[in-house]
């Protein structure tokens, strides 16, 4: 998804179109937020923070202040700062359906796995560790209990899955340098 967003922005040849594309994707990220799709918010905001996009000063200069302010708000929500403190708080107050950022939970599980032994010093199963793991899995499952009531759109699925629309990181950065060459030091 992140590659698709960055590629779509970079596919525009003129500054105004690229700025409009950024504004459109920030609006899509905000719609994801309204739908409690925090994974989508994170994917879109991370695409906009990729070096190939972030470095385009002329393009960003054309992006409205409102869009920049909205992007800052979305980024703060999904920021990894403080072990995803803001996202955890948002999820705590969120009513399902919801698509949380699973990377946050995977980090928690890896932390527990690496930092907590399976057995106590007495050789007994470490039930404290098992409870911590269970708590995380229960939290993820709670968001899966309520389905979204969104009608499937095959055209949208086809668009999102179309690999011909995406460029890799090197292509994106090379194109970024063509669009706005580095200024001499």
TrEMBL record:
SMART domains (UniProt xref): RasGEF (SM00147)
Name of the protein in its database record: Ras-specific guanine nucleotide-releasing factor 2
Keyword RNA-binding belongs to the record: no
Domain Ras-GEF: 1-182
Domain of life assignment: Eukaryota
Keywords of this entry: Guanine-nucleotide releasing factor
Gene: RASGRF2_6
Name of one Pfam family that matches: RasGEF
Keyword field contains Methyltransferase: no
């Amino acid at each position: 998804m992140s590659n698709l967003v960055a590629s779509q922005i970079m596919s525009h040849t003129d500054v105004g179109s690229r700025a409009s594309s950024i504004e459109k994707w920030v609006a899509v990220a905000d719609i994801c937020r309204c739908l409690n799709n925090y994974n989508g918010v994170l994917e879109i905001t991370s695409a906009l923070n990729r070096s190939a996009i972030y470095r385009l000063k002329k393009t960003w200069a054309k992006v409205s202040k409102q869009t920049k302010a909205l992007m800052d708000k979305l980024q703060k929500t999904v920021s990894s700062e403080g072990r995803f403190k803001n996202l955890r708080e948002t999820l705590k107050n969120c009513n399902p359906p919801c698509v949380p950022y699973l990377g946050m939970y995977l980090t928690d599980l890896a932390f527990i796995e690496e930092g907590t032994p399976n057995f106590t010093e007495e050789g007994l199963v470490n039930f404290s560790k098992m409870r911590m793991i269970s708590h995380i899995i229960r939290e993820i499952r709670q968001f899966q209990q309520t389905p979204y009531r969104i009608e499937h759109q095959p055209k949208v699925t086809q668009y999102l899955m179309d690999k011909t629309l995406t460029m890799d990181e090197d292509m994106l950065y090379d194109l970024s340098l063509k669009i706005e060459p580095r200024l001499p030091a």
